[in-house]
């Protein structure tokens, strides 16, 4: 259980950021609570005022990212506006969050989940499944009205999500495209695939 919940939020946020960077550089298993405390500039006992153990820190790192990915698009699951504009929103929102958490790139999609208890792992996987469900419903909605004819929404959703998450590996804000330009490129690329290269039917 996290102590001082709801208090000293800036300190807790900074601790999570330091832990995220260390997990990225050294790996979760090679990072100790003492390492996190040293990076933050405090004694290990101070870290335990906020987190009961290292697993809880990892869980909060993963949970924060997944919630920030899902919260802006959650309403789209039941929204009836243009699937094309919904797709643009999903891609743009997901990309911005993904690139803001570049240092935790390997955590969500590599071995980090194996280091969580069953209950915590289920929570993260449930959130990931929620994202998959949202994007598939948007694509299915597009199929239903003829925007995306003859497409497998499960495969399409996985491919789009993969394009976005892989940008963490090679994207650099000072080289090439801006985040906004990259979002536009991924959207146009995905739309071209969903429509088979034909002009999108926005009816």
Give a brief description:
This protein is mostly helical. The protein has helices at residues 9-26, 33-40, 44-47, 54-70, 83-100, 105-109, 118-144, 153-170, 179-195. The chain has 2 domains: 9-52, Orthogonal Bundle (Arc Repressor Mutant, subunit A), CATH 1.10.10.60; 58-195, Orthogonal Bundle (Tetracycline Repressor, domain 2).
What is the N-to-C succession of helices and strands? HHHHHHHHH
Please tally the helical runs, counting DSSP H or I stretches of 4 or more residues: 9
**Number of folding domains?**
2
The helix fraction, in percent, is: 55-70%
CATH topology of the largest domain: Tetracycline Repressor, domain 2
Q: Which class best fits the helix and strand makeup? A: mainly alpha
CATH class of the largest domain: Mainly Alpha
The CATH homologous superfamily name of the largest domain equals Tetracycline Repressor, domain 2
> What is the CATH architecture annotation of the largest domain?
Orthogonal Bundle
Q: Could you tell me the mean pLDDT? A: 87
Largest sheet: none
Question: What does the model show?
Answer:
It is a single chain. This protein is mainly α. It folds into two domains: 9-52, Arc Repressor Mutant, subunit A; 58-195, Tetracycline Repressor, domain 2 (Orthogonal Bundle). 65% of the residues lie in helices and 0% in strands. Helix 1 (9-26) packs across helix 2 (33-40), helix 4 (54-70) packs parallel to helix 7 and helix 5 (83-100) crosses helix 9 (179-195). The model is unreliable at 1-6 (pLDDT under 50).
């Amino acid at each position: 259980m996290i102590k001082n919940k709801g208090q000293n939020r800036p300190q807790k946020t900074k601790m999570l950021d330091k832990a995220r960077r260390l997990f990225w550089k050294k790996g979760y298993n090679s990072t100790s609570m003492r390492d996190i405390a040293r990076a933050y500039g405090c004694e290990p006992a101070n870290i335990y005022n906020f987190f009961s153990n290292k697993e809880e820190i990892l869980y909060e790192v993963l949970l924060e990212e997944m919630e920030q990915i899902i919260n802006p698009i959650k309403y789209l699951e039941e929204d009836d506006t243009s699937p094309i504009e919904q797709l643009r929103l999903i891609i743009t929102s997901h990309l911005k969050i993904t690139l803001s958490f570049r240092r935790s790139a390997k955590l969500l999609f590599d071995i980090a989940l194996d280091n969580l208890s069953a209950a915590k792992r289920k929570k993260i996987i449930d959130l990931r499944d929620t994202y998959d469900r949202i994007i598939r419903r948007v694509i299915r909605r597009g199929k239903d009205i003829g925007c995306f004819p003859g497409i497998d929404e499960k495969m399409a959703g996985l491919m789009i999500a993969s394009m976005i998450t892989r940008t963490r590996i090679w994207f650099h804000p000072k080289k090439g495209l801006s985040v906004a330009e990259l979002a536009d490129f991924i959207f146009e690329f995905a739309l071209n695939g969903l429509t088979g290269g034909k002009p999108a039917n926005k009816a």
